[in-house]
């Protein structure tokens, strides 16, 4: 685990709920750069929240398209991992009232939607958070989208066991537009 000074402070209210506020520039167009087909180089920790330092790397493809007149988008993630076909999908929905995105993930390992990560972009970098349970531990999950280079965005995921004081970065996706 390491500190990451670039991650916004996580606010948890007295009821233990995450408090997530949209950036002033958040809009339904935040993910428009991601429309189309992509090649992705993945770098993922072999084991999470276990002090692991070994990474596995694999290639994948992804295709994203807009839905709901631009208030949402869906993508399909295809890879072969350890000689096994793997498929994932993301559903992203923008709430025009709160100006927050909710990002839902499901994959061929589980067939269920994970709890949504919620957040927004500011200056083409997006931070999205949720609470979850991994290895019987309550954790925070963070997705970070770095879209400063819109033809080569980087998605990354981190977990925190201490309410966001420290983060374990455990998956990176380096994307190239086709």
Name some characteristics of this structure.
single chain, 178 residues, mainly beta, Lipocalin, globular, DUF1579 domain-containing protein
Describe the structure.
This protein has 178 residues and is mainly beta. The chain has a single domain (38-47, 55-177), classed as Lipocalin. The chain is 0% helix and 56% strand. It has strands at 11-12, 18-19, 36-45, 55-67, 72-81, 84-95, 100-107, 117-122, 125-134, 137-146, 154-160, 168-177. A hairpin with a 7-residue loop joins β11 and β12 (168-177). It is globular and about 45 Å long. The mean pLDDT is 93.
First-to-last CA distance: 34 Å
Give the spatial strand order of the biggest sheet. 3-4-5-6-7-8-9-10-11-12
Strand residue percentage: over 45%
Radius of gyration: 16 Å
What's the helix count? 0
- The tally of domains stands at 1
The overall average pLDDT, rounded, is 93
CATH architecture: Beta Barrel
- Major sheet description: 10 strands, antiparallel, barrel
Protein name: DUF1579 domain-containing protein
Blueprint (SSEs and pairs):
Blueprint: E1 11-12, E2 18-19, E3 36-45, E4 55-67, E5 72-81, E6 84-95, E7 100-107, E8 117-122, E9 125-134, E10 137-146, E11 154-160, E12 168-177
Antiparallel strand pairs: 1-2, 3-4, 3-12, 4-5, 5-6, 6-7, 7-8, 8-9, 9-10, 10-11, 11-12
Organism: Fibrella aquatilis
Protein name: DUF1579 domain-containing protein
């Amino acid at each position: 685990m390491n500190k990451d000074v670039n991650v916004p402070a996580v606010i948890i209210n007295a009821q233990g709920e995450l408090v997530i506020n949209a950036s002033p520039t958040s809009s339904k167009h935040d993910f428009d750069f991601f429309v189309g087909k992509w090649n992705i180089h993945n770098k993922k920790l072999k084991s999470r929240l276990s002090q692991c330092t070994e990474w596995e790397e694999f290639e994948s493809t992804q295709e994203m398209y807009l839905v709901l007149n631009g208030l949402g988008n869906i993508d399909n993630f295809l890879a072969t991992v350890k000689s096994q076909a793997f498929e994932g999908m993301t559903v992203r929905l923008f709430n025009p009232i709160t100006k927050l995105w909710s990002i839902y993930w499901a994959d061929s390992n589980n067939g269920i939607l994970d709890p949504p990560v919620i957040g927004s972009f500011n200056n083409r970098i997006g931070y999205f958070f949720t609470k979850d349970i991994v290895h019987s531990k309550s954790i925070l999950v963070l997705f970070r989208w770095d879209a400063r280079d819109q033809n080569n965005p980087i998605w990354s995921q981190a977990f925190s066991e201490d309410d966001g004081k420290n983060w374990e970065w455990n998956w990176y996706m380096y994307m190239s537009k086709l």
